[in-house]
Amino acid sequence: MIECPTCRHQEFVGTFSCSECGTRLVHTAPIGLDDLSEGEAAGDHGLPATRGLDPSAIFGLRVVETGDMVSLVGRDNFTLGRSGGGQAIVPDVDLDAYGAQDQGISRLHAEIRLDEEGVHVVDLDSVNGTLINGKRIEPQQPRRIRHKDIIQLGRLRLQLVSRQRS
Amino acid sequence: MTKELDFYTLLGVPRSASVEEIRRAYREAALRLHPDKNTGPGDTELFLKVNKAYEILSDLDQRADYDKGLVEHEAELSARASFKARVIQSRRKLLQLDEPQVHYLLLDVQPNADLPTIRPPINLALVLDRSTSMRGARLDQLRSAVIKILQSTEHGDSTSIVTFSDRAELVVTPDQARDMSVARARLSLIQASGGTEIGQGLRTGLNELEKYFSREGINHLILFTDGRTYGDEDECIEIAEYCASKGITIHGIGIGNDFSDRLLDDLASRTGGSVAFLDTPQAIVSVMEGIFEALGRTVASRLRLEGAVAPQVDLRSSFRLLPEPMPLGDSLPMNLGNLPRDGVVRVLLEVVIHPIGKMSELTLAHFTIDGDILGKGNNSVALPLQVRIPVSTEPDTDPPPEQITAALSQISLYRMQEKARHEAELGQSGQAARRLENLATQLLANGEKELAKAALSEADRLTHSRRLSSEGEKVLKYGTRALLLPARTGDS
Fold first, then answer.
1. What are B's interface residues with A at a Cβ cutoff of 8 A?
2. Residue A97 CB neighbours (<10 A)
3. Cα three-residue angle A130-A135-A138, rounded to 5 degrees
């Protein structure tokens, strides 16, 4: 990622101008992805190693802004959303701790699914939509994602981490 | 008219697709096209072709032979293609990176020198709003504009004039249009009253276009409206999709603060047309004359970008810069509209490249450019176009090419305006206001004082009333879009 010198908004390497404030970003050097730079992706299909019950695998979502890791273990699908107060349906991954409401995340916003073909994300008709690497995806249509892809729910950005522990 | 597509394009997979990807694409296509299920005419034929493609591509030896033949065939095609194309990229090399990166391609398409230089016959339907709000100067100017167009038609043209309010009526038939006194008399009967049902107007206009449809000429619909249609948007879009498949372009002209700009944009974008926004009736005549004159300079209609991008690449957005600025879709095939005889169609594509491992070169896309050449017995030869870029561990330190810099800095302004409007609609008025202030700063830096003022006044409105004005929305949208016009980017 590169960071806008004016407003500190993060964009992909190669982005011409900041989508927040319009500042030209050409030649901004990439910022380090700290703990993500070492380690090998788990196979070229990005297949999560959790399925093989490999204890050395890491599979989860990294909150881009804070760097926190949310591990995804023990299931084949995970709903992402916010719990809010006193509702019946609770998402598997509750993003309340990251200001879910202010970031425009729906209660049941999206779902991560694992199968033989890889990792897919499905937008569950959320109000503010889901973006994969900056591109909006159609609701209810599974989209394949790979290691290090950025999943944006509302305004909250999460990065898929799917690799072997080094 | 249908051309033989290569097997990869037929299946919608890149040339480098793995056997697994080919199998998946085949399965999808076969399910959709299977004779037990398909509905469209020609689907069964397509099903057989898809089967053939899969048979060849799933066999390593046969695929290698096919690939070799394809490369030779394409080299031969490029040599005699009807079009010339040039791609400029924002960077000379990509960075070997384990995170996504953004890249931009500027595509210029021009006609080959040996294409006909005749003025094509024009089959035109003018679909005009006659709702109550059109009364007065708008309708008067519109009548003058129509008369100007009728006066500049040539032998072989067909012009139909349709008006609509809650229903649509054919006011002037092509036969009547050939006699100016009859046409004038018919036009003077138009009365402004009633609501706005765009779908009715489009359907009647399309009926007329189909009666006089010709592959040798231009088939075009101009939709003029000052209002908002209710409940028939889906029907309008269906008609636009149909027009796109037939090669009929739709040009939208909106006047005033209340027209449905998004619907007009959608209709135009699907068909490769464009949209003009007028804030005063005085502009109607010159804008309509300009559109008609440009139609006469068309050498190929239904210019389209086909093919596929590499599996590591996602097409994120595209924007046509020339001849008329217009945001296009983010999927292939893409309808680029009409190709002018003496000009160029220029499109900027924004792609996201997924993490790429160790490789020295990436083939970003295999495109095919094709269009319907106008004039008698002209069959087009499609142009195959491969876009490649070196991949390196060292970042490219050269500045991006001038044309890309110019286009991108203007597009980023357009995008900010779009984002602010989206935020305002979601109720995030504070954020939208901040963005418009940023936009105003950028506009001022570009010397666009009037637009900057408009952006600031909308930011102010957001802070106080939490909403944008419908006038401001349109001024900012079409204002920033117009910045992309050739005169502004200093490049004709």
1. 90-91, 94-95, 97-104, 314, 316, 330, 352-355, 395, 397, 399-400, 404-405, 408-409, 412-413, 415-416, 419, 426, 428, 435, 438-439, 441-442
2. 11
3. 55
Residues from chain A contacting residue B395 (CB–CB below 8 Å): 27, 29
Residues of A in contact with B312 (CB under 8 A): none
CATH superfamily of B122-296: von Willebrand factor, type A domain (3.40.50.410)
Q: Do A12 and B438 touch (CB under 8 A)?
A: no
What's the CA gap between B1 and B345, in Å, rounded? 22
pLDDT tens across B256-288, in order? 888 999 999 999 999 999 999 998 899 999 999
Cβ separation B95–A19 shorter than 8 A: no
- The fold for domain B85-115+302-399 equals Immunoglobulin-like (2.60.40)
Rounded distance, CA B268 to CA B336, Å? 11
Angle at CA A78, nearest 5°, toward A77 and A82? 160
The answer to whether residue A164 scores a pLDDT higher than 70 is no
Candidate from A13, A16, A21 with C-beta closest to B95? A13
Say if the Cβ atoms of B412 and A16 lie within 8 Å: yes
Interatomic CA distance for residues B84 and A74, integer angstroms: 55
The reported pLDDT for the residue numbered A31 is 56
ipTM of the complex: 0.71
Find which of B18, B95, B101, B422 to mutate to test the A interface (most A CBs within 10 Å of its CB).
Answer: B101
pLDDT at B65 over 50: yes
Could you tell me which chain B residue has the CA closest to the CA of A33?
Answer: B99
Average pLDDT, chain A: 76
Dump pLDDT digits (tens) for B120-164. Answer: 999 999 999 999 999 989 999 999 999 999 999 999 899 999 999
Distances (CA, A) of A15 to A3, B245, B355, B442: 10, 34, 15, 17
pLDDT tens-digit map of B91-123 = 888 888 888 899 999 999 999 877 777 889 999
Distance of alpha carbon B144 from alpha carbon B117, whole angstroms: 30
**Mean pLDDT computed over every residue of chain B:** 88
Residue A27 has pLDDT above 60, yes or no: no
Q: How far apart are CA B195 and CA B134, in angstroms?
A: 10
In the CATH hierarchy, which top-level class contains the domain B1-80? mainly alpha
Sign of the torsion angle spanned by Cα atoms B22, B23, B27, B30: positive
**Spans of all domains in chain B:** 1-80, 85-115+302-399, 122-296, 402-489
Contacts of B439 in chain A (CB under 8 A): 22
Interchain proximity B100–A149, CB inside 8 Å? yes
The closest CB to that of B97, out of A13, A146, A147, belongs to A13
Give CA B254 to chain center in angstroms.
Answer: 17
Q: Which of A1, A3, A15 to mutate to test the interface with B (most CBs of B within 10 A)?
A: A15
- Chain B residues closer than 8 Å to A133 by CB: 100, 314, 316, 352, 354
Which of chain B's residues have a Cβ under 8 Å away from the Cβ of A30?
95, 97, 99
Mean pLDDT of A44-70: 61
Q: What is the DSSP string of A44-88?
A: TT---GGGGT-TTEEEEEEETTT--EEE--S-SEEEEE---SS-S
Write out chain B residues lying below 8 Å of A146, CB-based.
354-355
- Give the per-residue pLDDT at A38: 37
How close is the nearest chain A Cα to the Cα of B386, in Å?
A: 21
Q: Give yes or no for a contact between B323 and B345, defined as CB atoms under 8 angstroms apart.
A: yes
